[in-house]
Amino acid sequence: MIGTIYNYYAGGNTARGFYNLFESNLNSLNRIYILKGGPGTGKSTLMKNIGQYWVHKGFDIELIHCASDLQSIDGVIIPQLKAGIVDGTAPHVIEPKAPGAIEEYVNLGEAWDSKKLVQHKNEILEIKEKIGDLYKLAYETFAKALKIHDDWEKIYIENMDFEKANELTRTLIEKFFKNHAAEKSSIVKHRFLGAATPKGPVDFIENLTENVKSRYFIKGRPGSGKSTMLKKIAHAAIEKGFDVEIYHCGFDPKSLDMVIVRELDFAIFDSTPPHEYFPNRKHDEIIDMYKECITPGTDEKYKEKLEEISTKYADTMKKGTAYLAQAKTFHNQLENIYVQAMDFSKVTKLEENILSQLEEMKSY
């Protein structure tokens, strides 16, 4: 029997810079391997290999994807073992709570030939500086896009019936939770369902909701109360002691895009671009915030202004994405330098050592 793979992001290239949500996904683990090493040293491959090993043994795993490289992952978690392996290099630096007792550093630098890298020292420094400059430009551009998005939201906020939105939220909370309560403290996981990547927006909604019975697709416009609704539903779940997965917006992490409460078998998410989906299963349901809460005719009344804002926003986001793509090109050059200096047979031995330790944990 093959285990289930859940995919998400715990770090994102956002309008507020690089945003780290790793902590809540790691704090229940008893063993965390923190990988150190440069780009191209095999960290992602090592984690993928270990993940595949356990998923083929019937264990569910979580793959934490890299927002800056669609082919890489930043971590793998095996919940049944209460163990995980994460990339501990910048920008997602992992702060250990109990080094040696919980966290263990694994240095992939043991497998490189420093003499070869010294020959490329100046090139490495130049490329890293270019990458840093490009990420700075990307984040500044996304910040500009956020201000444009605020103007977009303002139009709908000024035409919104907040009491109707509150009533709709109260109705949903009653529907989801009724008189149910869990006799425990809630475990809360903060994540991203998608990310701004060098190839544009990517999301894992279909994967994350695959095994959830009831899915609620929130439709609407910017500023129509989608995130506020999700925050209130998440708060209700926590108050009642249910474990909850809170998925932040990969563009603005202060907003929410999805809440999943697996104990009650439901997921509710913002189903508008860039992660727009439509019902295709029996228990799927649409919640239309525009229809329920916005003054009729708002789209038509502000048509020209909305088109102008939408175009400006899309153009700005494309510029930000282009900076990420350029940074990825330079990152590839950096990886190639390190690949040429690596002895991957030594990385394989490190991988085997981690697997051996995990196997021992399985028998506890």
Notable traits:
44% helix, 11 helices, 364 residues, ABC-type cobalamin/Fe3+-siderophores transport system ATPase subunit, alpha/beta, six-stranded mixed sheet, P-loop_NTPase, single chain
End-to-end span in angstroms?
22 Å
Overall shape: it is flat
Question: Residue ranges: pLDDT <50 for 5 or more in a row?
Answer: none
The largest beta-sheet arranges its strands as: 1-5-6-7-4-8
Rounded mean pLDDT is 96
Main sheet properties: 6 strands, mixed
**How many helices?**
11
What is the strand content? 15-25%
Order of helices and strands: EEEHEHEEEEHHHEEEHEHEEEEHHHH
Protein name: ABC-type cobalamin/Fe3+-siderophores transport system ATPase subunit
InterPro entries: P-loop_NTPase
Organism: Aeribacillus alveayuensis
How are the secondary structure elements laid out?
Elements: E1 5-9, E2 11-14, E3 17-20, H1 23-26, E4 31-36, H2 43-55, E5 61-65, E6 73-78, E7 83-87, E8 103-107, H3 114-118, H4 121-157, H5 162-177, E9 188-192, E10 194-197, E11 200-203, H6 205-208, E12 214-219, H7 226-239, E13 244-248, E14 256-261, E15 266-270, E16 284-288, H8 289-293, H9 298-301, H10 303-340, H11 344-362
Parallel strand pairs: 1-5, 4-7, 4-8, 9-13, 12-15, 12-16
Antiparallel strand pairs: 2-3, 5-6, 6-7, 10-11, 13-14, 14-15
Helix pairs in contact: 2-11, 4-10, 5-7
Protein name: ABC-type cobalamin/Fe3+-siderophores transport system ATPase subunit
